[in-house]
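Hey team,

Sharing the Arginine:ornithine antiporter run so nobody has to redo it. Sequence (491 residues) first:
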Amino acid sequence: MVEFEPRLFDEIDPSERPSLGAALVPIAGMIVFLSVGLIAFDLDPQFPLFWGIAFTGLFARYHLGLSWEDLYDGIASSLLMGMRVILIMFTVYALIASWIQAGTIPSLMYFGLELFTPTVFLPVAAILSAVISFAVGSSWTTAGTLGVALIGIGSGLGIPEPMTAGAILSGAYTGDKQSPLSDTTNLAAAVTDTDLYEHINAMRAGTLVAFTIAVLLYAGLGLRAAGTIPADRVASIQAAIESTYVVSPLVFLPVVVTFGLALRGVPALPTLGAGVFAGVGTAMLVQGTGFGAAWSAAQSGTAPETGMELVNGLLESGGLTGGAWIVTIAIAALALGGLLERAGVLAVLSHHLGRLCHSVASLTGVTAVSAVSMNILAAEQYVSIVVPGMTLGNLYNEQGLKSQNLSRAIEASGTTTSALIPWSSGGLFMAGTLGVPTLEYAPYYFFGFLSPLVLLFMGVTGWQIVYADRADSEEPATRSGGAGSVTAGED
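Structure output:
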């Protein structure tokens, strides 16, 4: 677990603390650079983020008075926090390639095409993803394994990939939020001093409402997709897979190994690493791939020639080295977030948002806005949990609210929206893993919008809002921050 100890507003010396106006300068600069680079010149995000790093660093050095060493430390701390994210990204790309070479993902597609129909595919994909994510406690593991296969099955059934990706993410984040094995669920409980199961129970009703609505919407989309698949398309896809891979129950060994370890509570990184070894071993034993060729596929990716262009495209992968493009964006975004945190920008913004809270409704709304803002600015879902969780705790205590109201709010609006931000670690990972750009799957990631909307409904109506009794209110309902550090792993 990686330590992350953000500087809170009261911990920053007033002489070093930026004003609200000064804090908004690097934010405005980042918006301008991303707009100019991505929209005006159609650049990839790396260099617009690099411009933002340079601008923020110079502003913090010469206007706010931070030393170069302070700035380096800010970048290093953020990168250290995100190191597990980076390692998981590389490992998942190697895993996908090894599972394709082993015939695991092609076989999942082969049998899935027999079991699913276009009408039921999207809602079933969402529910199946939720069940697996709850069981293993990881939305990322679910998307990187089951999700990749579901993308292929959906394409074979004529379902647009963005729709399938949205259903996968809705299910994956639903199960993740309710799983006691999830790192983000544990982090949200820990940073607010909330009992883990009280936190999970507090999320259950809102999560169920949001997910039920999402599943109904996917059912509606499925009805529109029914009947669009040519009669012989499934048979053609299956024939193309059989012509290239051995389709056998033995190829599911990597699935058994990976999910077996996850169910035993083994952390995501060693679990996924074991999945790579299992995939390579299965490729050698079942598909007859040589030792060097099997590891080369895991490293450099796959480009099968099945005789069918659709299948070739679905089973192409970049392998470990193919993840470098996305990882460079993640590194740049983490570095920028580290500079903003060290300069006090995040603390100042969160503090001023907190001053807008005058009721339960406004407090809930400000918490949601703060969590989403941290996702946008720091590009890491852990920051969206930790900073609001440690900054806004006293405000919940002042209004006589139990800490699970805060823990629910930061996860319902922070964890779930990470996958909607193109440069956030969640958005980068899901787009790279599923092969669908963030802005294309975002309109179909219904749970990502519904979860914070249901949260706001709770704040306005008072539904599921839990108050402390008089005895409880004598003790702090949440940690106000500053005492020690919190730890973060990765989903």
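The chain has two domains: 20-82+336-461, 83-322.

Ping me if you want the raw files.
A.
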